[in-house]
Structures are given as structure tokens and as C-alpha cells.
Amino acid sequence: MKKVLFIIGSLRAKSFNRQLADVAEQLLAGRVEVERLDISDVPLVNQDKEFPAPEAVDRIRKAVSETHALWIFTPEYNGSYPGMVKNALDWLSRPLVAGDYATPTCIAGKVVAISGAGGKAATAGSCAKLTELLTFIRAEVLESQTGVVIAPESWATDVLTLSDEQREALRQQAEALIAKIEK
Ligand SMILES: Cc1cc2nc3c(=O)[nH]c(=O)nc-3n(C[C@H](O)[C@H](O)[C@H](O)COP(=O)(O)O)c2cc1C
User: Is 128 in the pocket of ligand 1 (CB under 6 A)?
Assistant: First the structure.
């Protein structure tokens, strides 16, 4: 069975993006294997500490190397994706051996799906900038993306409720991702 690795760009216990990932996982159930990548312990990029890489960096690189695709669920922070996501992707974009820019990195060529839950812009800025970053580091960004506007009542309850349209958009994205990696 093909594998999809989820990255959730929020550390918040009741994260709406984590709840969106929960729905996506249900949509993928039985079709692909889903794993979640913890990026909370990845240290800040420091070129003095690249070789050998920190243990948490080795761990995320191994997980990314072994997956068929990634699916990133990103909040929008000030019109962009959170720094934690940038930091992890920066590590993934670096060579494994000092000075070796010829060998493809573990993120190069990986299929990456992007979704986000946020305020009224539906994470448009976050998803667009993340697309730009992923393209820059040579990942293959799935064209189908889902941006969810968090419903007014959800802000009070911390429970993500999706409209039929939002759920359908996520379902279509899940199908597009499966089709892409089954090719
Ligand atoms: C630093 C910061 C900046 C934010 N900027 C935006 C923003 O530009 N647009 C937006 O829709 N929401 C913004 N928010 C609100 C988040 O959308 C909201 O906190 C959301 O719940 C975060 O996702 P999560 O529930 O997965 O943690 C911001 C939140 C933080 C902490």
C-alpha cells in the first residue's frame, strides 16, 4: 500500500488544521497508509550543525525518503505559513553530505498536497507561499488544494465543522492525491 505522510503546521492541542487532517485521514482510510510526522522537536536551522545533522532532522529526512507523498495542513500566520513549517522544509532541502548539491535531496520530486484551515482568506496566502517554497525546493505540488474558512461557531467551540462543500473539496483532493501516487 502507498504511504502518505501528514505534516500539521500547528502545535495547538485543539488545532483546526489537525482536525482537518483527521477528516483527510478518514477519506484516505483503506486506500493508502497514513503516518503523521512530528516536526515539533526539529531544531532551528544552523549551518554549524548540519554535518552530522541533528537526530530529529535525520528522523524527518528518513520518514520523507520512505513516503510516496506528503500532505501538509497549514494554518495562516500573518498571510503566510508558520515558521515551524519553513524550518522543517529548509532542513529537508539541504544536502546530506557537505557540498554535495548533485545528489537529489529527500524532498526533491516528492508529491506534496497542501490544505489549510484559517480565517476568511481560507489560508490562500499560506497555501500560495507554501506552493512557492515547495516548488523552489523541487517538490511536486499537487494542483488540487483545499482552503477552509473556519466556521464562526468553531472559533467558540474549538471544534472544526465542515460544510458539505468543504468536505467535498477535501474528498476531491484526497482522490487527486491517490490518483497521482497510484500512477
Ligand atoms: C501569529 C499568528 C498570526 C495569524 N495570522 C492569521 C492570518 O494572517 N490569517 C488568518 O486567517 N488567521 C491568522 N491567525 C489565526 C489562525 O488562523 C488561527 O489561530 C487558527 O486557529 C490557527 O490554526 P490551528 O487551529 O490549526 O492552530 C493567526 C494566528 C497566529 C498565532
Answer: no
17 lines ligand 1 (CB under 6 A): yes
Nearest CA residue ID for atom 27, ligand 1? 15
Q: Three-state DSSP class for 112?
A: strand
Would you call 33 helix, strand, or coil by DSSP? strand
DSSP 8-state symbol, 48: G
Mutate to test the pocket of ligand 1, among 22, 39, 73, 78 (most ligand atoms within 8 A of CB): 78
pLDDT in tens, 50-69: 999 999 999 999 999 999 99
| Domains, the chain, with CATH or none | 3-182 (3.40.50.360)
Residue type, 143: E
**pTM (2 d.p.):** 0.98
